Amino acid sequence: MVTVRQLRTFSIGKARNLWIGAAVALKDAKAPAQYVSAGRRFDAAYDAGMSCALLIAECEKVEISGQGHHAESLKQMADFLGLKGQTADAIPAMIQARNASRYDATPIANEAVLADAIKWAERIIAETEGWLQKNHPNVLKK
Fold first, then answer.
1. Which of 28, 72, 80, 97 has the most CB atoms at less than 10 Å from its CB?
2. Distance from C-alpha of 43 to C-alpha of 117, rounded to nearest angstrom
């Protein structure tokens, strides 16, 4: 069961760390195939998107926990960012692939799936940056 709880505080430090973490994860997702497996790079692309979801939740003073918290966090992120089309539609597939890899040991060996995950993460990071510039520009300052 997913629990969504309104928080009273906002941590600028946490928000900035999540933003930095999203960029680092995306960079890791793009690591050369000869050094990092497709599965690890997929996880990094997924983590980039999830970091953005957690960042937006932090900025909106919301905590999401419990079974299904990834799906709910990513859904709320899509709502806040106004994501539509391929980027929003890919969320369930991304969660399913991540869970299959993580919990069922299903390997992600398909470079096309990885390429789609990287494009998904790039789009989410770009949309999150625009949202931050408009709603929380202080997160982007160092």
1. 97
2. 9
| Distances, alpha carbon 92 to alpha carbons 25, 60, 61, 81, in Å | 20, 23, 24, 17
What are the helix and strand counts (H, E) for the chain? 6, 2
Label residues 4-26 b or e (16+ Cβ within 10 Å = b): eeeeeeeeeeebbebbebbeebb
Q: Which two tokens stand for residue 17?
A: 């760390």
**pLDDT category of residue 109 using cuts at 50, 70 and 90:** low
Tokens 């949309």 correspond to what residue?
A: 127
3-140 belongs to CATH 1.20.120.330:
yes
Can you give the residue ranges of every domain in the chain?
3-140
Query: In the block, which residue shows the tokens 């997929």?
Result: 42
